[in-house]
Amino acid sequence: MEEVKLNDQEEARQNKLPKYVELGVDPFGKRYDWKDRIVDLREKFGSLSPEELEKVDSSCDVAGRLISIRRMGKASFVNLKDEHGVIQAWLGRDVVGEHDYEVFKLADLGDIVGLQGTLMYTRTGELTIRTTKFTHITKCLKPLPEKFHGLTDIEDRYRKRYLDLIVNDESRKVALMRPAIIKGVRNYCDSMGFVEVETSILSPIAGGASARPFITHHNALDKDFYLRIATELNLKKCMVGGIDRVYEIGRIFRNEGIDAKHNPEFTTIELYQAYGDLQSMKEWFEGLFRYLCANVVKKEVFEWNGKTIDVSKPFADISMAEAIKNVCGVDFTQDIPFEEAVKLAKEHNVPLQQSWNSTGYIMQAFFDELVEPTLVNPTFIHTYPIEVSPLTKKTDDPRFVDRFELFIAGTEFGNAYSELNNPFDQKERFEAQLAARNRGDEEAADIDFSFIDALMYGMPPAGGIGVGIDRLCMLLTEQDNIREVLLFPTMKDEK
Fold first, then answer.
1. Has this prediction a pTM greater than 0.85?
2. Which CATH class is domain 167-315+377-484?
3. Mean per-residue pLDDT for 88-101?
């Protein structure tokens, strides 16, 4: 990358660095022991009258960025922004002293500083720090976007997320809400007796889901490994080992495209409950939404993807076959030969893939194409064709399995099974997946013989679920693009 020539503002800022040194100040600072958050100061003192404020100890010590400077000779006003708020401060030469005021005169927008003082009200009624000590902490060598209106180029916002967080309050709010949501998910699981574990990101096979993997090479072993596409199989091995309620929140990697709902690396929670089933997972999932809405985001109705989503009501629950029949009249509970299913797909403009060889694949395609976009408020779609669900118990009808996915505004949020624990059935499902791969399905999983061996020792009946944390954060923060809830999303090369 070529060195970029400094513009006039950048050159002026760099020319100030020796002047700081002359004043005995390190332009890039050292430890600063601030003690107050701006939001706490406003909460504690903001409701007091000027007379009441004068009678209490309002001494404070804050640190943050200068976002406005209004110099007026021997006195000046600034606005300081920390992680959670903005406050005005007044600096007078006679109060902070000659030295500190000379240091302040070198200040630019974006500089990180510390302010000590007491609180007062200005004549306009604004809560303000009457600064008694000014401390320069770190010089900002590049000008921030003009007037703090934020970055307007969306690609720049994602590439320079650090700058986006400085100037866009909404971006900062979302960035701070995401870890709060994840903490809420963790608290909810822990309160129900689930144990959080960590499993390996590198895997000798690509298993646990249908997706194209990323491949890397282990030099010491001289062997290719895959970045995990799911945590499922290792968590089930934990259940075999006696951890009855287990979950993992972690990064997943899938070599897929980038769009408003997909990023090649993303975060999921996978959770398994021994002695449970699909109904257990429905109760867990609906309960998760209730918990997060009540304890984290404090709301139940969201504007998302152009829809109003109400998660306060009981979630709808319908079989895939019934949902398809309601939309287009085709009834996949009937025994439809593959050739006839192909003909029906063409009549309804449902896309086909060459690797498909049975009706279950086409049933799934009907749902994806015709039904999924119509699902607005939370809806459990259950009873899936066996071909697309290799890790799930069969229903009484062997063509279908005990599985659901939750859809909101045409988007899938979670995938749950009554888990398959029969090692012989599991081996047959793996072999069917391998055959699909040989027919050209690049997302079909490998056979994991170590998992089959684990099942031979006995895994209790269980309910299991995987939930996309990124999409959950998108809904709860009302963001339509996944890149808004990822601090550093995967980006194309800059032109």
1. yes
2. alpha beta
3. 97
